[in-house]
Specification:
The complex is a heteropentamer, with one copy of chain A (243 residues), two copies of chain B (206 residues) and two copies of chain C (222 residues). Chain A contains nine helices and no strands. With 243 residues, chain A is mostly helical. Chain A has one domain. In chain A, helix 3 runs parallel beside helix 8, helix 4 packs antiparallel against helix 8 and helix 5 packs antiparallel against helix 6. Chain A is globular and about 65 Å long. Chain B has 206 residues and is an alpha/beta fold. In chain B, helix 4 packs across helix 5. Classes of the chains: A mainly alpha (243), B alpha/beta (206), C mainly alpha (222). Chains in contact: A-B, A-C, A-D, B-C, B-E, C-D, D-E. The interface between C and D is large, with 49 and 53 residues. Bound molecules: protoporphyrin IX containing FE, adenosine-5'-triphosphate (ATP) (2 copies) and magnesium ion (2 copies). The site of protoporphyrin IX containing FE has 23 residues of chain A, from helix 3, helix 4, helix 5 and helix 7.
Chain lengths: 243, 206, 222, 222, 206
């Protein structure tokens, strides 16, 4: 296992591997999304209290979960790069950041749209919403710092420090509904307790979550391939690969 | 004491040098030579532990310098191109701070004496901003006067900006340091004769 | 450890005394910006009192951000930072000394002036005391996280703005708890929970800020 | 004349636009700062609307101040300033070019974003237009007077206090007229008197700021 | 062309030098010599019009330089110890800016050629921050390649940080400039032989 990891930690070896994996994840994302949307819009029942507006959940929850999950993965790659000084780690972190920022924005946007019919306002400054906004700023700060430093190795390491510091925000987002008295509702999906929502709703939501997952992997792999090409453009194998 | 094995340095995707090995024993001097941009400064920074080499490792008394951290700092003195002299502080304050940073205990009198020995005694109370280029360099070098206990000196272009008299002072100081069992690595474009038990030369660049 | 800490602390304090202008600028900025709101908004006492603590807190945040770019940049330019990295003292202690000096020359004066500004907004005496306590507790957070931001953006163009982008979101909890404590007092509630949350956040940012600053400095000079 | 002006203007613009992210960073900074105030003040719509214009103006001042220290200091450190003083172009034109570049890269984007920030604070449409006009007119003042302050703080010891005392109070009229124009609109009054006062103030600070900057630069390099 | 009469310079209440007179005609070179802190840089800055002398006056083509202002700047090129190279700009942008500031028209191709002639052609697109000390110096000096029209050159320690090859390049450039009727004033600690129709030496300090 360790030796396999080591082999693929080199950009040169990872580039073709990523290329082969992308179609699989892309197709998986497309199929899961179609299935999830079908279940979400045609199978799942209308909510007793919220009517049809609740269907935003099929976008909102996957986006919100991915926004936090991707951040943790990104910080993990960044930290790995800081400790082991492997080139690929920083590239993976760079590739994940835009997708994470996109999902964060999506969670904020869909949440705001949802808030209008349910809470009567687009935005309140409560802990869950504010910490999610901070997450967006952290992603954007991470990207801005990377952009600002020309030397890519230095940029990787500096932004890795930032990503690691920002990890504290993740538990704050997740537990904010328990720690503070917020307008936002608490967790309704849990591994220990029985589900509180209709089985079809849950199925649609989980399908969308997996679709988002597959999509993130496919897009990040495509992006990391572009980054590898750009950073290693002077290497002999890249010239061969392009030529 | 100081051992570097198969050092390589990469900058901006280009390899500056590779396979550089250095072994320094007490009393020995290494001269790093090479044209502009060949990587002399980079090599010195690697030896000081400021930059991580692309390949290879630097060891001090057998231990990798990355692990020694400030313990290595206490036995090594690095003087980069920028002299680390603050414009707002006086020459004496600058020297006192530099010495304590390097872990060298020195009283006010010793600081004044060191400055006087380096020909900037009259400027001890002036803010470094008004000093001339060479005087600023002398303030930075004055820490060598009190650094006999520090075995390893890494000096980047120490002769720059010095007049003849200054060059003479530095040569003398280096000679006593090496004679007392010290070690030094230095870069210099000028041909300056230096007395040492052993002189190694590392040549970089085409 | 302690020697490294006092070494940079003493030096930076001396430099700050030589350049009194820098610290005074920060304080002036704080006072003028905070006094400007009543001028600019022309609001009546009621709403003014409601926004008072928040405005003072945000102004303190911005003022201490204003002084950040200088924290390491000058040391980088003249080679002192290099000397700190190869010194015989642990880097963490040296950096902690610098941060302490920064707090003593910006955070502490800001905290001492904050109640005066609160007075302008018509805050009652007990709220003023809480405001002082909250800025005293919160301003070291700004210095610590701000130092990390300054170190991360070292040698980068537009460092001031970029550091702001990186640091401000991280400082939000301090702002929320700090202003929250005063708001609690105004509503005749106990400010202690807010203040102890602020204290906990200070402890977290001490560890994180110091670690991030040291790591970022090593990266910047690599 | 014109050649000297366009020379430094083009160079500083290139410096600022070198990375596409820089302009975005300024905007991001504003969004973040604008989000801080509601957090600190408890965020009820009433008081929020009252402080909206003030917040935008504080952001303007802050952006100028944050980016100012580097306006001449970097040029001084690397010898470019010396080259400007001994150049074949009149100094006033060169400095004007630098100030214009500073305004184009901070003041102008700020003015364009100002209405969006105002929207967040629930300002009505007519107040938004006045806000845009006031920041468009007022931000050059900040660049001009700020440049004089930056030049004064070069080299001369203790000049920091001097610059702070000189620049910040001088900027206060701009802030008062600017925010006042918006406040007038909110109270259904005519904002024109405020805006024309602001325009007059801009004319004065053009002459004053440019002259003071050039004089201060010569002094700093003597 | 350049005439300085009875120049004196005071710094911090101390007189650095006095009664220095210089008369420079086309093809002539002035070497300013002296130990560290003797006032060489100060003298050059007076000649460039950056500092006002305590006594005396500098005239260019008969007119006091203070009155000429930028008209003097167009005929004079000053290179101080700090090379005026911006860390964020690339080598090519730095040179292009320096040239236009000095009133020298130069296209992109000429800029690249000048850099290549000074051995930093490969670094033309790199930000100056990553250049080595000597490379930065070369970027600053590259403006001389296109400054044939500028009659007066004032160079403070131009040989500092240069390797042998760089010193050779600068010597050659100076020789052609002087042979073409140009003038130069320079300071240097190193003994470097320079070909000129006439060489004056100004000795400062004890
Ligand atoms: C901009 C506003 C909003 C933001 C930033 C936001 C953020 C989040 C985040 C980060 C999560 C995932 C955390 C977790 O699973 O515990 C989440 C989940 C959720 N949100 Fe929101 N939200 C917003 C508005 C709303 C609104 C208006 C509603 C509906 C009234 C809502 C309902 C939910 C639900 C039902 C979940 C799933 C909780 C679970 O099952 O675990 N959100 N939201
Ligand atoms: N990011 C980068 N991209 C490309 N090249 C780089 C980068 N960083 C550094 N370099 C190159 O690395 C070299 C740095 O060399 P270094 O400063 O060690 O040279 P040196 O031998 O000390 O030269 P000098 O004699 O001029 O002081 C230069 O050639 C520089 O152009
Ligand atoms: N304000 C001041 N107070 C006292 N002395 C001053 C002041 N300003 C400058 N000096 C002195 O003036 C001299 C400046 O000399 P200058 O820089 O011209 O020397 P230089 O000949 O170029 O020396 P170097 O060879 O070191 O470059 C120094 O001796 C400095 O100490
Ligand atoms: Mg070097
Ligand atoms: Mg000199």
């Amino acid at each position: 296992m360790a030796s396999v990891l080591y082999t693929y930690a080199s950009p040169q070896a990872f580039y073709p591997l990523a290329g082969r994996m992308i179609p699989w994840f892309a197709w998986a994302a497309a199929i899961l999304a179609l299935a999830g949307l079908y279940v979400g819009f045609f199978v799942a029942p209308t909510d007793a209290t919220q009517g049809e507006a609740y269907r935003i959940i099929f976008l909102h929850v996957p986006a919100a979960w991915m926004s936090m999950f991707i951040y943790v993965v990104m910080a993990g790659w960044a930290g790995l790069g800081l400790v082991l000084n492997t080139r690929l780690s920083g590239m993976m972190a760079s590739a994940l950041a835009p997708t994470g920022a996109m999902f964060t924005f999506l969670a904020l946007w869909s949440g705001a749209l949802w808030g209008r019919p349910t809470w009567g306002t687009y935005w309140v400054w409560d802990a869950r919403l504010t910490s999610e906004l901070i997450l967006l700023f952290l992603y954007l700060g991470f990207i801005a710092l990377k952009e600002a430093i020309e030397d890519p190795r230095r940029a990787d390491r500096a932004s890795a420090v930032l990503a690691l510091v920002g990890v504290v925000n993740i538990p704050i987002i997740y537990f904010s509904v328990q720690w503070w008295n917020t307008l936002h509702q608490g967790a309704s999906v849990s591994f220990t307790a029985a589900p509180k929502m209709a089985a079809t709703m849950l199925a649609g939501m989980l399908l969308m979550v997996f679709a988002a997952w597959m999509y993130s992997i496919a897009v990040s792999l495509a992006r990391v391939r572009a980054i590898i090409l750009e950073r290693e453009r002077d290497a002999a194998w890249v010239r061969e690969a392009i030529a | 004491m100081l051992e570097a094995k198969a050092l390589a340095c990469e900058r901006g995707g280009r390899r500056l040098f590779g396979g550089i090995s250095i072994a320094l024993e007490p009393g020995a001097l290494v001269r790093v030579r090479g044209p502009n941009g060949s990587g002399k400064t980079s090599l010195l920074r690697i030896l000081a532990g400021l930059t991580r080499p692309a390949e290879g490792e630097v060891r001090w008394r057998g231990a990798p310098i990355a692990e020694l951290a400030e313990a290595y700092g206490a036995e090594m003195l690095f003087l980069g191109h920028a002299p680390g002299v603050k414009a707002e502080l006086t020459a004496a304050e600058n020297l006192a701070f530099a010495l304590r940073l390097a872990g060298i205990a020195a009283g006010e009198r010793e600081v004044r004496e060191a400055l006087a020995r380096w020909g900037v005694g009259a400027q001890a109370g002036l803010p470094a901003r008004v000093l001339s280029e060479g005087q600023r360099r002398r303030v930075a070098l004055a820490r060598l006067a009190l650094a006999s206990r520090v075995p390893l000196w890494l000096l980047d272009e120490p002769f720059a900006a010095l007049d003849e008299d200054g060059v003479g002072l530095l040569r003398e100081r280096l000679a006593t340091h090496l004679a007392a069992g010290g070690m030094a690595v230095l870069t210099s474009h000028q041909e300056i004769a230096l007395a040492a038990r052993r002189v190694h030369t590392v040549a970089l660049g085409a | 450890m302690l020697r490294g800490f006092t070494l940079t602390l003493a030096r930076d304090m001396r430099l700050a005394l030589r350049r009194k202008g820098d610290a005074a600028n920060v304080l002036l900025f704080f006072v003028i910006v905070a006094s400007l709101f009543p001028l600019g908004t022309g609001a009546e006492p009621g709403p003014l009192r409601a926004i008072g603590a928040g405005v003072v807190w945000v102004c303190a945040l911005l003022a201490s951000l204003l002084s950040l770019p200088r924290l390491f940049a000058a040391d980088l330019a003249d080679g002192t930072l290099e000397q700190m990295l190869v010194s015989a003292q642990p880097l963490g202690a040296l950096v902690a000394g610098k941060i302490a000096a920064h707090w003593l020359t910006t955070g502490l004066p800001l905290a001492l002036v904050a109640p005066l500004l609160g007075l302008q907004y018509g805050l009652p005496t007990d709220a003023l005391a809480v405001l002082l306590a909250s800025v005293l507790l919160g301003s070291p957070v700004l210095s610590l996280l701000g130092a990390a931001g300054a170190a991360l953006t070292l040698g980068v163009r537009g460092a001031g703005v970029l550091a702001g982008i990186l640091v401000l979101p991280l400082c939000v909890p301090a702002l929320v708890f700090g202003a929250g404590a005063v708001a609690a007092t105004l509503s005749a509630l106990d400010p202690a929970p807010h203040l102890s949350l602020l204290g906990a956040f200070l402890a977290v940012s001490f560890v994180l800020g110091l670690w991030a600053s040291c790591a970022a400095l090593r990266v910047a000079l690599d």
